[in-house]
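Now read this:
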Amino acid sequence: MTETPLTLAEVESLARTAHAGQTDKAGRPYAEHLAAVADGVRARGGDAEQIAAAWLHDSVEDDALSEEWLTAAALTPRTKAIVRAVTKRTGEEPEAYARRILATPGALLVKQADLAHNADPERLAVLDEPTRKRLTEKYARMRALLGPEQRGRTLGQRS
């Protein structure tokens, strides 16, 4: 890459702008979720590329930014790979999604931070019972697919 990658401040600003006006299932500004995931990655020892990916982790999936934008963006190849890995594809089975995350260096840490915030009891408590139950089961299934063997590894590692 000959172009200097965007700084974390630039990535954060871009993500906040891309998701402006969007809210989560509880009606909160979506940028709060992005910030929480980025903070979670940082707290888990993630590096700048993973933190950048955390800010952008839902951008393509939510159509806030396009795949074409991601391809052309001034981001490192690793950051782009992590964003692509954690982007759910229409009709994709959870098992295939989990395999892609596990196969992409650095992606597991971003997904773990995303799941941790999504499954936060305080966030879930404001939802109606059927939605809370459905999401709790969905997040538990994804954690199981990502595997308990991952807990003992240094999840921020580049390998």
The CA atoms of residues 2 and 74 lie 9 Å apart. The chain has a mean pLDDT of 91. The chain has nine helices and no strands. Residues 129-146 form the longest helix (18 residues).
